[in-house]
Every structure is written in structure tokens, then in C-alpha cells.
Amino acid sequence: MPKKDLILLAIDESSVTDLVQKALHAAGFDVAIVHEQMALNNSIQEAIPELIIVGEKFSGRDWLSITDEILGRFPTIPIILYAKQDTTGYAKSALRAGLSGYLYPPLKMEDIVFEVQRCMTRARGLGDWLRREVKRTTASLQEKAKISESERIKLEAIISNIQDGLILLDDNENILMTNQNIRQIFLLGEKPIAGKWIRAVISNADLHALLDQSKADGVKYYEIHFDDGKVFNAQYTHIPRVGYAITMQDISYLKELNRLKSDFIHTVSHDLRSPLTAILGYMELIERTGPLNEDQTSFLRRLQESVQHITNLVNELLELGKLEAGFDVRRETVHLQLLLKHSLDIFEEQIKKKNIKLKTVIEDHVKAIHANPIRIRQMFDNLIGNAIKYTPAGGNVNIMLGMQANQALIKVQDTGPGIPLEEQNRIFEKFYRASNRPEKVEGSGLGLAIVKSIVDSHQGRVWVESKSGEGSTFVVLLPALES
Ligand code: ADP
Question: Does the Cβ of 448 fall within 6 Å of ligand 1?
Fold first, then answer.
């Protein structure tokens, strides 16, 4: 037998309760009657009725507070108010309170059943709609969850299949995710690393330096070296609301190519040196063999200048070769102030000739460095030489020596033509000469490559800050000695 719908009556007047009960029984409903508040609560708790009829006053309480309480807990239960008389005031308040119907004397059986059935049909319609909506929303949420799960799997597949190594970190340097390549690069095997502090998992000194320097001065690229000779180019990128990404690209073959190229240049330069010395020697002998006419003397001068130019180039290439091959091992305590002074002495003449205004600022407490004095002097000569060479007559050259944290800081600033942004990295390459340099300024394009090699071999950093047309500032940082 199908279960009958349960109607709960909470009305004080027994004559009304009897009539309503009779009418509803006859219409096929189950009826439960309660006489006081506690029973009403228990009854609703035990079996939620399909509908409740509440009297205007029940168990000493006002209908509004009772129905408020019930609807607060079960907002979809239909409630009918039984009022002792019909007033528009009651009808309005019942509607406002969220009740479904309203009964008043004289009560007729068919009116009671009609009102109960009307309210239940409406409540069922509402219930069905609610269920449909919940089902639809749940299905769409499940669909969305399915999509984001499949997106996640896709993303993971992409990340694990890219050839570069990839590490994702949160703001506290804890590992969020890595791909398989990173495990191979750092020989991590299969050990669990997610959520761990990267420095505790990977002990590579270059990687730690990248993390330190990126934090301190926003470095984006760094070379990471391994004992087996492999070299990776690491890029450090900030990802808002995630943390940081480090990508690592194997550049060992590029390094090897570079080494082969340097070896080749070195061999050629070496082989050129002896014939050049011979040419210079014989040119001097020509002058001694007998008097030369004016033209012959002029041609010989030009020949000598050209050969001298090639000799300088060859010497610079050999220097660079030595530096790149790591032959520069001499280290001693070096006071930058002294080397700077010696370097400025040799440029005194040129500075005067070009009427350049030179300003030198040396801060107190500039610490000494552990370095090869000959190389550091060469670095000063090249940077200051360029500043004077590229600055037009009457311009300014400012030199500054100071400290930045525990590093010695050198700045060489000029009011020359500046360097276009897109060429600023390239000027440290061998033979690269920027596009906006004045035509007549001579050079080999090797000076800054030598500077970079020297600074690198002293574990320092060099870069340029410049804008085309607004001068350049070359900045060098070198690790200082502790005391
Ligand atoms: P170069 O022998 O051509 O001076 P460098 O290696 O010393 O070679 O410099 C490379 C290039 O960088 C130069 O050709 C020039 O274009 C640019 N450069 C270097 N220093 C400066 C400077 N102080 N001002 C403007 N451009 C500079």
C-alpha cells in the first residue's frame, strides 16, 4: 500500500483539530496532532510532515514566531495558517512570512482539503524544480571538474615531455612540480621531492647562486655547470600567484662549439705572430738599407701602421685565448684604488686632448679583492679606454668605486653615443661592434669580450646600463675579501 502523506496539526482548539482531522482522513491523508511546542519540534524531527497547519496561537506562542522557526530549519515545508477570523492583515502577514496558505472560519471540509491539496501541489512543484536545478548544477560542476582534471593531465604530459628541465617553486622555494628531465639532470632518481625545500633536495652551487642572485638583483639567466662537463642555461621567471619557474636548457654542445672556435682562433693567431714579427723586422731593415724617397717613406709608414694593427689584434686574441682556457690562475690581494690610479695615468694625455671632464669618486672602506692585478688593470684599461674613445670631445666620464653588500662595485659612466638595448648583451661577444658607434672610432670588438672573461674568471659580473643617445654606464661587481 502506498504511504499516505502526513499532515501535522498544531492548533489549540480541539473542535477545529477534530474537523480538520476528519476532513483530511476522509481525503486519504495521515494526520498527526500535537498540543504543545516540544511535541511539535519532536514530531517534525522524527518524520518530516508533508504539510503543517498552525493555529494563530499555539502552546502560548504567536504563529509568526513558530512558523519562522520551522521555516528557518525546513524552508520547503508548506505551512497553512489557521486564523480565527478572516482579515486582509492576516493574509498579508502570512504571505510575507513565507506561508503557503490561509484557513479561517466558517470551516468547510472541502475548503480544508482543497487548501491542503493546493499547497502541497505547489510545494511539490517547487521541490521538483529545486531537485532538477540541483541535479543540473551538480552535473555541470562534475563536467567542469572533469575538464579541469583532463586539463591537468594534459598539462602534466606537456611538462614531462618538454626537452628542457622545469622546476616550479612556491614563494618559499618549496618544489611544487618538476618534470622527469630535472630528475635526470640532477640525478634525483625516484625519490619524492614535491613540497620539499629545493636547496635541501638539490645541492648544486650554481643553482643556489641563481636563487640567491635572482632574489637580490632579479637575474634571469645563469649557467649551471656539472662535474661531467655539461652546462645548462637556467632561466628564472616569476609567475604571479604561483611562485617561480626555473627552466634549464642543455647548452653543452654550444659551449663545445665555442671552445672549438676559440681553439681555432687561438691556433691561427699563434701561427700569425711569427710572420708578423718578421714583417715588422724587415720593414725596419728597409729604412736602413738606403735612402727612401718621400712616397716610399709614406707607404712604409702606412704598412707599419697596418701591420701594427694586425699585431695588436693577434695579441688580443691570444690574450683572450689564454683567459678562456683558464690559464689565469694568479691570485693575490688587490687594491682597486691603486690599479684605477695607474690606469688613469696612462689616459691622462688622451683626456686632455679630447677635453674630457673626468670625475672620480672613491667611497671609503672599499675592500680589497682576491685577483690577478694584471687582469684587473686590463679590465680598467679597456672600460676607461672605451669611455674616452666613444665620448665626444668635451664630454664627461665619471668613475666610481664602492661596495655593494660584500662585493666591490665599479662603475664607468660616459656621455658617449650609448648602446641600443637589443645590442647590450651582444657587445660582450668577440668581434661584436654596436651599430650606432661613430664610424671613425677604431677597434677590434675584442675589448669587452676580454673584460667579460676577466670578470667571469674572478666570479664577478659585468653589465651595461645604457640608452641609445644617452651615454653608457658599465658596472662590474667583484667578490671582496672579508677583511
Ligand atoms: P671595440 O674595439 O670596438 O671598442 P669593445 O669590445 O671594446 O670593442 O666594444 C664592443 C662594442 O661595444 C664597441 O664596438 C661599441 O659599439 C660598444 N661600446 C663599448 N664601449 C662603449 C661605450 N663606452 N660607449 C658606447 N659604445 C660602447
Answer: yes
